[in-house]
Amino acid sequence: MFDLKALLAATAGLHHDHLCPRQVLGVRMGMYVGELFDLDLPQSDKRLFAFVETDGCLIDGIAVATGCTLGHRTMHLIDYGRSAATFVDTLTGHAIRVAPTRESRTRALKYAPDAPDRWHAQLAAYQVMPANELLRAQPVTLNVSLKAIISEHGKRVVCEECGEDIINERHVRVEGQTLCRACALGAYYSVDQAELPIAVAKSGMESIPQTAG
Question: In a designed cystine with 67, which of 42, 82, 144, 199 is the match (CB 3.0 to 4.6 A)?
Fold first, then answer.
């Protein structure tokens, strides 16, 4: 049985005891998919896999409620900027996409009429709204290969261009060469210097702004 208060406390603990509406939403999404799939969550194995469509607090709620995490390779981020996730039962192959209903934000005012503002109304209401009013669930068919995303443990090759290891079969073949995707398709960074002294690297990190979840 799910314990909503315990799950909310666990996800709040990831943010210094701070709880926001998206965390609650993520927990409720995880609880709902557990009911739909009739699975005992949070899982201790890797049966359930989650494709999440945004980063931030929503993911923390989903992770706490389901046990799906990036670290366990049972979660995959496809950043559409949408508060939604598709959950796959890897045993049966069935997939369900769960997202908040279009009316969930306005319905929150009905369930928390004394809230000082919309944010606090959503925070309170998302904890008590019936799942069918808060969330919508749709059976879906994946257009990507879950098997390829999961890959196989221990598979490793070396990029012939940069010499770095590539794991999880993320390499590509270009004109007979085995390359990492950064070398083959272009990286998100460009190298200014081959190597930096550790002290300089740490000093540079201090200027990078920290963002909230």
Answer: 42
